[in-house]
Specification:
By secondary structure, this protein is α/β, with parallel strands linked by helices. Among the domains are: 1-66, no CATH class; 108-134, no CATH class. It contains eight helices and 13 strands. The strands form three sheets. It has a six-stranded mixed β-sheet, with no helix packed on it. Strands 1-3-6-9 form a four-stranded parallel β-sheet. Strands 5-8-11 form a three-stranded parallel β-sheet, with no helix packed on it. The longest helix is centred in the N-terminal third of the chain and has 14 residues, at 6-19. The protein is flat and about 65 Å long. The two termini are 35 Å apart.
Length: 248
């Protein structure tokens, strides 16, 4: 099958960007407070804004209603309203597989009882939570991170760095360094994705802050194995003139 030419790719990406916020956005985002309206609002946004990967209104809803920030073009479990703890921040171009679980606080092990009756106000016994809220220990996931199926991230992990990979079924108990691959229970270091000089060059490019319609101009860079020569195109002076993703 022939690969579409660069002009087609650029126009396709620009079309997706134009559709990413529909004319009804200003009305639908506030209406999401009504539980009865939520399902139909999600259906409307899927249809009118090109799907969850592109929808800017869905991302606004996640911030407003759930205190979760998800960057553009990230997709997967991170876009399920109410799934992730408040304070979670996810960068652009991330790939999040099914079954992700993020925990930001533990049961208190230094008390007579570990039962939520005695620390969680939602159980009805106490007036307010007696341990830190989720948002007090937020998780930050960088840009272009891939998290495999069924991964669990525990409270002592506070950051998963740019370009990292978390293997399927991993239990992440500590921070994950940028451009590393971790896996297992507990998750442990497997390898770096690239040599140090390639990682440095990718970091310098900050390509994840560039809009898709600009990135596709460098299409060969992204569909072939990374090399210093190919990444050089992303760090040329003209890269600073690229349109950048809003909020990045």
């Amino acid at each position: 099958m022939n690969q579409p030419g660069p002009d087609y790719l650029i126009q396709w990406a620009k079309s997706c960007q134009r559709r990413s916020r529909c004319a009804l956005s200003g009305m639908l985002a506030p209406l999401y407070r009504l539980r009865a309206a939520r399902f139909i609002i999600r259906r409307i946004l899927d249809k009118m804004e090109g799907g969850k990967m592109f929808s800017r209104t869905l991302r606004e809803i996640l911030i407003r209603q759930y205190g979760v920030t998800v960057g553009m073009y990230s997709y997967g479990e991170c876009l399920k309203p109410g799934l992730l703890p408040r304070g979670t921040r996810i960068g652009n171009y991330c790939s999040i597989a099914a079954g992700l679980r993020i925990h930001r606080r533990n049961h208190p092990t230094d008390r007579v009882s570990q039962h939520p009756f005695f620390y969680n106000q939602q159980c009805g016994l106490i007036a307010e939570d007696s341990i830190e809220e989720d948002a007090s220990n937020p998780l930050e996931i960088g840009h272009d991170v891939w998290i495999g199926t069924g991964a669990i991230v525990l409270p002592k992990c506070r950051r998963i760095g740019n370009g990292a990979v978390v293997g399927a079924g991993s239990v992440v108990t500590r921070d994950v360094e940028p451009f590393t691959i971790v896996a297992g229970n507990p998750a442990h270091f497997i390898k770096h994705r690239f040599p140090p000089e390639v990682i440095e060059r990718i970091n310098a490019s900050e390509w994840w802050n560039i809009e898709l319609s600009e990135l596709v101009r460098h299409f060969p860079v992204f569909v072939n194995p990374a090399s210093l020569e190919s990444i050089e195109r992303l760090t040329e002076p003209r890269a600073s003139q690229h349109s950048r993703i809003a909020g990045s």
